[in-house]
Specification:
Layout: H1 3-16, H2 19-26, H3 30-44, E1 49-51, E2 56-58, H4 60-87, E3 92-98, H5 100-107, H6 111-117, E4 121-127, H7 134-137, E5 141-145, E6 154-161, E7 163-167, H8 169-175, H9 181-186, E8 191-194, E9 203-208, E10 211-216, E11 222-223, H10 226-234, E12 239-243, H11 244-252, E13 257-258, E14 268-274, H12 282-300
Parallel strand pairs: 3-4, 3-5, 8-11, 8-12
Antiparallel strand pairs: 1-2, 5-14, 6-14, 7-12, 7-13, 9-10
Length: about 300
């Protein structure tokens, strides 16, 4: 086992707070994970973690070593990246996350072309509508809609995405077509909400004559999967707020109809989130540039 492997393992154990979680992330067994930490502690002649049957916490020496360990790994990563740039042949696994709609409709179709250009890159695409933690989940890039909560990460904006409120013809026939967000609330329309554990009450930001106003909507249906909400809307269960590119074809075909058009939803930012040191790896930078260029052109041409 190399000293560098031991440092990498220490950093992931520190960030994930668990030997088993770090082992799964690094694809090594818990026994190997523990052995690497023990070897590192023996080499340094200090305890890096306090271990109990229920918890694992870094010691003061562990906290101090973590900062230097990250710098070491960043330096090695930069050196490797410099070599790869010279050979123009990026290699290795790239971990990317995206919301379901963005990932399925915009990013996944681009992956084969990218991997054809860079055949020694392995791309791991994780699609989820929940918020992700790049550090904890070992991600290189995360595409997202909205505003990130972690200000320590870097953001590269792609576009402002139009959104629409819509419902099926069956729902409109049964409940009427609300003209505005005020009608949605006053008439107690069934609103289909994208929510996660611990999320606050659903509030839809709609554009009114006096500016953006947040409407507190309600409904019996909620999910952490945006495509489930679309399916519910199609089956006549309620009103859904979606990025326009996700439902444009359904609207064009008449399967969904825009509602509350007097107060359209505020556009939402689409961007890419990354850790600065991760972008020193050319495959991360290449993939981000590749995806953003094509998505930006598609939005400019109104083809999505």
């Amino acid at each position: 086992m190399s000293y560098l492997d031991n440092i990498r393992t220490f950093v992931r154990v520190y960030e994930l707070g668990s030997m088993s979680a770090a082992g799964r992330d690094l694809r090594i067994s818990p026994a190997v994970t523990s052995a690497r930490i023990s070897q590192l502690e023996e080499h340094l002649s200090v305890r890096l973690f306090r271990r109990t049957t229920r918890s694992l916490t870094p010691t003061e020496q562990g906290k101090a070593f973590y900062s230097g360990a990250c710098e070491v790994l960043a330096s090695v990563q930069k050196a490797e990246a410099d070599v790869v740039q010279i050979t123009d042949n990026p290699k290795g696994s790239l971990y990317v996350a995206a919301p379901l709609g963005v990932g399925r409709r915009l990013i996944a179709p681009l992956v084969p072309e990218f991997l054809e250009q860079y055949p020694e890159v392995n791309l791991r695409l994780r699609l989820t509508d929940r918020k992700v933690d790049l550090t904890v989940e070992g991600l290189d890039l995360a595409f997202f809609l909205g505003q990130p909560e972690d200000s320590n990460l870097r953001i590269r904006k792609i576009a402002d995405v139009d959104r629409v409120l819509c419902a099926s013809p069956d729902y409109i026939q049964a409940r009427g077509n609300p003209a505005s967000g005020y009608d949605l609330v006053a008439d107690n329309h069934e609103c289909l909400s994208l929510r996660f554990p611990g999320a606050s009450e659903s509030q839809w930001p709609l554009t009114t004559e006096s500016g953006t106003e947040r409407f507190k909507v309600s409904g019996r249906f909620e999910s952490d999967d945006g495509d489930v909400l679309t399916d519910w809307a199609l089956s006549g269960q309620g009103v859904v707020m979606k990025p326009l590119f996700e439902v444009r074809e359904l609207i064009d075909s008449g399967q969904l109809i825009p509602v509350a058009t007097d107060t359209p939803p505020e556009p939402i930012q689409m961007a890419c989130l990354y850790i600065h040191r991760k972008l020193q790896d050319p495959k991360s930078r290449l993939f981000m540039d590749f995806v953003i260029e094509r998505i930006s052109k598609a939005f400019a041409a109104n083809s999505v």
